[in-house]
Amino acid sequence: MKTKTWIIILAGVFLLGLIGTLIVFFRPTENKIANLYVDGVCIRSIDLSSVTEPYEFTVETDHGSNTVRVEQGRIAVISADCADGTCIRTGWIGERANPIVCLPHRLVIRIESDVVGDVDAVAR
Amino acid sequence: MKIRRLTLCAVLTAMACTLFWIELQIPSPIPIPGVKLGLANLVTLFAMFAIGPVDTLLILILRILLGGLIGGNPMAVAYSFAGGLLCYLIMLLLRRILGGRQIWVAGVLGAVAHNLGQISVALVLTQTPQLLYYLPVLLVSGMLTGLFTGLIAQFCVLRIGWIK
Q1: A19 and A50: one domain?
Q2: Which strands sit side by side in the sheet containing A41-47, from one edge to the other?
Q3: In which domain, by residue range, is A3 found?
Q4: Is A51 part of the contact surface with chain B (CB cutoff 8 Å)?
Q5: Which spans in chain B are helix H?
Q6: Nearest-by-Cβ selection for A40 from B32, B112, B129
Q7: Distance from B118 to chain A by nearest Cα, in Å?
Q8: Quick check: A114 contacting B, CB < 8 Å?
């Protein structure tokens, strides 16, 4: 195949990926519900818009623990005993809709419009 | 195995491990699991186009196992194997199709294959379907880093040429 053909094909795939990335990261969020998943199961849902007092809680799993801080309209992992610290460096989400992922602890926090788990109650 | 071939494989494995270690020292600026430079892939790519598939597979497997010892994370070895082998298969297919000035294409598609392999294993191991949201991000990052390592490997292959 000609180099030009490769460039066109790859540029097309790249554009698709870029559009997908923009959708995942900059999707406007109307209802700010933060859903916490461990092992793919939602363990807790927090309505971020109704938070008045900032608070913290710790998610303990078989894999380790993550401390989550919740403020008005936003949520972040502030400390964790995982090896890579990716979840902490993701920072605050809420305005941005990208998920927080702690792969070693199998914890995912996503901003969604629907309540999936028990509101503000740790299920396990 | 001839001494020459043995030494060549050993040197390239050492280079791959060094690049792997250097990359571990650089904290990723983008906090997304799976986004990384993939410097060690440079050696795989070079070996595939300058030496041959058999030796490349040997170097790749040795690098992953030694990299697991260097990084000290047994889980990372599982991810590396899935990513590395898928990347290897793509390069093997492209080896015959691509000309010398198109090696960067193998870098791009190899890196994308690597990321796809890793996310698949992560999906199975962690049972976290939400990871799929990272698929487009990993596609874009894989293409950019793959282009970077692919071009470097291409320059090396064109300079050094086929090694017998």
Answers
A1: no
A2: A41-47, A33-38, A107-112, A100-102
A3: 1-29
A4: no
A5: 3-25, 41-50, 53-71, 74-97, 103-126, 135-160
A6: B129
A7: 12
A8: no
Total structural domains within chain B:
1
Q: Are residues A9 and A61 in the same domain?
A: no
Distance of CA A57 to the CA centre of its chain: 16
CATH code of A49's domain? 2.60.320.10
For residue A12, the model assigns a pLDDT of 94
Whether residues A8 and A20 fall in one domain = yes
Q: What is the DSSP letter of B96?
A: H
Judged by CB atoms closer than 8 Å, whether chains meet at B126 and A106 is answered as yes
Same domain as A65, residue A15:
no
Integer CA distances (angstroms), B79 to A89, A124, B9, B86, B117, in order: 21, 29, 23, 11, 8
Q: Which of B3-17, B93-107, B116-130 has the lowest mean pLDDT?
A: B116-130
Q: Using a CB–CB cutoff of 8 Å, tell me whether A96 touches chain B.
A: no
- Chain A neighbors of B135, CB-CB under 8 A: 20
Would you mind telling me the total number of residues written for chain A in this entry?
A: 124
Output phi, psi for A25, to 5 deg. Answer: -90, -30
Instruction: Mark whether A15 and A37 lie in a shared domain.
Output: no
Number of structural domains (chain A) is 2
Mean pLDDT (whole number) for A35-57: 87
For residue B94, the enclosing domain spans: 3-160
Alpha carbons B91 and B107: distance in angstroms, whole number: 8
Same domain assignment for residues A97 and A76: yes
Q: What distance lies between CA B145 and its chain's CA centroid? A: 11
Q: Which residues of A touch B139 (CB under 8 A)?
A: 13-14, 16-17, 20
So what's the pLDDT on residue B128?
A: 74
Residue of chain A whose Cα is closest to the Cα of B137? A21
Quick check: ipTM above 0.90? no
Residues A25 and A36 in one domain: no
